[in-house]
Every structure is written in C-alpha cells, then in structure tokens.
Amino acid sequence: MNPSWLLPTAALLGIYVLCAGCYGMVYALGRLRESRRLMHAAHAFYAVQGLTTLLLVALTPLAWGWKAFLLASFLVYAVIPPLTWRQLERTHALEHES
Amino acid sequence: MNQSKKLGVQYLTASIVMMGALLLFGLLASIFYLKYGFLLGKLDFNIVKQVHINALIIACLWGFMGAIYWFLPDELGIETVGIGLARLLFWVFVAAVAVVVLVFIFVQYGSSDESGMWLVNQGRKYVEAPRWAAIGIVAVFFTLAYNIFASVAKARKVTGIMGVLMTTMVPLIAVYLIAFPAPTNMSVDLYWWWWLVHMWVEATWELIIGCILALALMKLLGTSRKVVEIWLYLEVALVLGTGILGLGHHYFWIGTPQYWLSIGGIFSALEPLPLLGMVVHAIYDAGKHQMKTHNKPAFLWLIAEAFGNFIGAGIWGFMMTLPQINLYSHGTQWTVSHGHFAFYGAYITGIIAVAYMVAQESRGIREVRGNAWKWAFAGLNIGMVGMVGALLVSGMSEAFIGRALGGSTLDGFMASQSNSWFMQGMIARTGFGVIIVASYFILAWDLATLGRRREKPSPALATS
C-alpha cells in the first residue's frame, strides 16, 4: 500500500458500505410509502456505490483479488434490500394467515 | 412477579450501574491523553483502561443474563428451575466483581508467580479477572445453562428461540475456558486468546442478543413467533457464516500464518451483508407499526440497535478490515473507534431497550411517558457518534503518520502522538465523553424513577 493511498482507500471503503446502507434504508422507505421518488433516490445511492466501486478498482492499490471481491459484493448488495423486503412481506403475510 | 423476573430486574439494574463505572473509567482514561503525567504512579492508564474494558464485558453479560431471566418464565410458562441457586450466585457474582475491581484499583500488580495469577490478574486483556474470580464466572455460566436446560426439560417445550439460546450456551462456556491455560509461547497464547474474544463478541453474543431481541419484539410489537424465528434462523446462518472465520482479521503482528489475513479479510468483509438486511427489517417494522407503541423508548433503542450495528460494525469495520488497510490501522485509535461503536450499537442499545421494557412491565406502567428518555436517547447517541468520529480522526492520523509514513518506528509513533490532528481528536473525544456520561445519568435516573414520579397526563388521557 502506497502511504498516500491509505486514507483515501479507507474512506472509499467506508463510503462504499455507507452507500449500501443508504440504498437499503431509502429503498425500504420507498417501498413503505410507495414513493417513486424515494425509489429513484435509493437507486441513486446504489449508483454512487457503483461509482465508489469503480474508483476503488481503478485508482487504489488494493490487490486484484480484493478488487474482484468488491465488485462481486457490489452486485450482491443490489439484491439484498428487495430480497429482504419480499421475505418480510411473505413472513408477515403468513402471520396474518395464521 | 416471580423469582426469575425478580432476578432479571436485579441483573439489569446491576448492568446499568456497571455501565456507569464503564463510562466514568472511560472518561478518566481519555484524560491521560490530554494531561501528561495524569495520576502517574497512583492509578496508571493501564489500570484505568483495564477497569473500563472489564466493566464493558460485565455490563454486557449482566444485561444478557437479566434479559434471559426476565423472558424465560414467559417463554416457557413456568418458573425457572434452580432459580434459588441463581439468585444466590447473583450476589456472589456482584460481590466478586466488587472485590476484583478493588484489587485492580488498589493492589494493581501481583508477583510474577502463580499467586499473582490466582489473586490479582490473569494478564489477558478483557479477561484479566484473577483465576478465583474466573472460576466463579464459569460456575455462574454453568448455573445459567442449567437454569435454561432444566426449565426447558420441565416445561417440555423447545421453541426455536430456546433451541438457539441453549446451543449458544455451549460456546459461551467453552470459549471462556480459554482464559485459564497460560501458554508461555506468546503467539500460541494470542492465537487462542482471540478465539475467546472474537467468538464471544462476533459470534456467541450476537446470537444471545438475537434471541433476546426476538423475545423483546414478540412482547413489544406483538410480532408472531413464526416471523421472529424465521429471522432468527437466518441471522444464525449469516452471523455464523461470516462471523466465525472473520476471526482472522485480528491475526496481525502475532506470528500466525499469513493465510489467516486473507481468510479473515474475506469473511469479515461479508459481515455488513446481514447487517444491511437488519436495517431494512428495522424500517419495515417501524413503518408497519407507524411508531405506535406503549413503550417508545424501548422501540427507539431497538431501532438504534439495528442502525448502530450497521454503522459501527458495518461501515466502521469495513473501512479497515481489508488486510492492506488493517496492516496500518490495527491497534491504533482507529480500531478503538470501531470497537466503541460496534459494542454500543450491537449490545448496549439492546440492553437499554430491554431495561425499558422491564421497567414498564415490572412497575405496571401503561405507557412510558416523559421527556427524560428523549434527552438520554439523544445525548447518548450524539455523544457516541461524536466520540467515535473524533477517535476516527485521531486513529487515521496515527495510522498515516506513525505507521504508513513513520514505518511503525518509535520516531513515527512519537510523531503521530504529538500531531495536532491526533491531539484535537483526543480533546473532542473527551468532550463528547462528558456528553455521554451526563446522558447516562439522565438515563439511569429515568429508569430508576419511571412510574414512581409524577407525570403530566398525556393530552389523549386528559380529555378521555
């Protein structure tokens, strides 16, 4: 690791997960309020996470294995909020049926 | 109120009191960074820090035990088996902790033979309690496990939550036994010591708090058992899947094989994934219940748990968990920042939520009202975010100047400690620490007087 890249890389990694958190949070709020605007905002956060991934891959001195890992994780993050939401609705529907 | 619930109240009260010791010693420890020679030779930094971090462990354990003894009779429909022994051991436990703290403060150091280990300090961070006290802790854990297993057997009822809780008792006790042997090889010693610390904090305790929160959600929001159990199983799978091998992210500078760093990096980098699911879940619950509950502080502290866990363990952890970063950040104030946020988010918030539920039910309060809890909630959360932010600034400066530029030399270390970024972070940390301590006193006062002080009637009740 080049010393001058230590803090920018760490900051980008923090932003990477922060964006994932904002994406999940705003996505959930959007589904809850059935707001298209919030859903667009959620996808905007996901896009910023994508941009962060791109910067991490293109600029930082992380090893290639880690860059591939970050890229794969970025793709997995996309499906977590919708999957969790669908599962929540399914389990709570079961609750009402029983 | 039955005996088990009374014991639950006692353990939770002790936990909240212990949080006070934890915070006061934390604040005291922060002053050492600001005032050169502070209490030198009387109460050195290492002793203050030792009391601070051991108080954290005990506050969490007492909080978990309080919640378990409180919820157990409701879950199984019977009085907890062996509760007399458990009540006796509570007082033994409290007395033993008081003696250990007094020994830490006034005796401080033992001789370099076996007697020092038996009577003063076992020497490993987080589990410094002398051997006689450590044996007592094992006895308390065995009693807790007996209470749970025997009650389940008597009730002939193994719910999903109880199944997970019973399973968790095994690693809770087993990994603590690592506190006893004293290998003379430091690498071997630290290798196993991390098993104890990591497997407790990032695996076993996660499952215990998961069980406690499942029981709390059923009571607080009336969520069905089927729903909470499905999510608990999912959490077990994800936490254990990512948590166990995340162990390797601690294995820096202790002589373990290098492959551990990659294993630890990969699995700990996966840890934010289940935490993101928890954030979505928290918003779903808050939205579907439209924040309507008779115990708003408990509800908000549960929401704070989901967010605190994600930010403290997820974001703060991810910033520094990849080996190329961890190599520099390990053991700096950066780690301290992550540790504070993660412990607070994952455990302290959950224990406070349960404490509010217990205060409400044990005193027959229909609806928790007042403003004190709001001040405590805001003060503790703002104070914590400010403190970990300040520690992050200091830690990044330490990693950059002392490690990356200074090459981890003594000169580099000294340069990082006197750097203005580091010092300003330390001053801000103490400032936010004062806010946390003040807010803690409001919290403790609110919990102690809830239902016992005169409140203005709410508008809805006044007009009805």
Verbal overview:
The complex is a heterodimer of chains A (about 100) and B (about 475). With about 100 residues, chain A is mostly helical. Chain A has one domain (about 5-95). Chain A is about 90% helix and about 0% strand. Chain A has helices at about 5-35, 35-60, 65-95. Chain A is elongated, with a radius of gyration of 17 Å. The model of chain A has no long low-confidence stretch (mean pLDDT about 90). Chain B has a domain at about 1-155. The relative contact order of chain B is 0.09. In chain B, about 75% of the residues lie in helices and about 0% in strands. Chain B contains 17 helices and no strands. Chain B has helices spanning about 5-30, 45-75, 85-105, 115-120, 130-155, 160-175, 185-220, 225-245, 260-270, 270-290, 295-320, 325-330, 335-360, 370-405, 410-420, 420-450, 460-464. Chain B has about 475 residues and is mainly α. The model of chain B has no long low-confidence stretch (mean pLDDT about 90). The chains are: A mainly alpha (about 100), B mainly alpha (about 475).
List the SSEs and their pairings.
The complex is a heterodimer of chains A (98) and B (464).
Chain A: H1 3-33, H2 36-59, H3 64-97
Helix pairs in contact in A: 1-2, 1-3, 2-3
Chain B: H1 3-31, H2 45-76, H3 83-107, H4 114-119, H5 131-155, H6 160-176, H7 186-221, H8 225-243, H9 259-269, H10 272-288, H11 296-321, H12 323-329, H13 333-362, H14 372-405, H15 410-418, H16 420-449, H17 459-463
Helix pairs in contact in B: 1-2, 1-3, 1-13, 1-16, 2-3, 2-7, 2-13, 3-5, 5-6, 6-7, 7-8, 7-13, 10-11, 11-13, 13-14, 14-15, 14-16
Share of helical residues of chain A: over 70%
Give the mean pLDDT of chain A. Answer: 92
For the termini of chain B, the CA-CA separation is 30 Å
How many discrete structural domains of chain A?
A: 1
**Structural category of chain B:** mainly alpha
